[in-house]
Amino acid sequence: MGAKLLRISEGKGERDAGPVAPEKLLAGQPQQLTEHFFTNAKENFFCGIWSSDEGKWTLTYSEDEFCYIIDGEAVITDADGHSERVVAGDAFCIPAGFEGTWETVGTVKKFYAIYEE
């Protein structure tokens, strides 16, 4: 049997909800919802939809991540203090090795695709 096309449709993935890990938290009490849709056979590529309400936390990336902001706004700041505001319609990549912070302004929802060596 051949591989089949997998459509990403909100509300159809495996859901996981909870707070940002306390050791990463810098401000607020953000709650996250991840709706996972796909993991490849090597278990090193993943995609889904992630959302969060207001808060700020530290980031340390061992993976490469493509993001597309579906709704809302966030501010991503690197270890050197350079900040980027991302809003609905923005697409960007966060490379492995990135360290900094993520701040959700209000609420945000993104589509993610993650690759990890």
TrEMBL record:
Origin: domain of life: Bacteria
InterPro entries linked: RmlC-like_jellyroll (IPR014710), RmlC_Cupin_sf (IPR011051), UGlyAH_Cupin_dom (IPR008579)
Annotated Gene3D superfamilies: Jelly Rolls
Domain (S)-ureidoglycine aminohydrolase cupin: 41-112
Region (Disordered): 1-22
One Pfam family of this chain: Cupin_3
Protein name as annotated: (S)-ureidoglycine aminohydrolase cupin domain-containing protein
Species of origin: Microbulbifer marinus
Residue stretches of biased makeup (Basic and acidic residues): 7-17
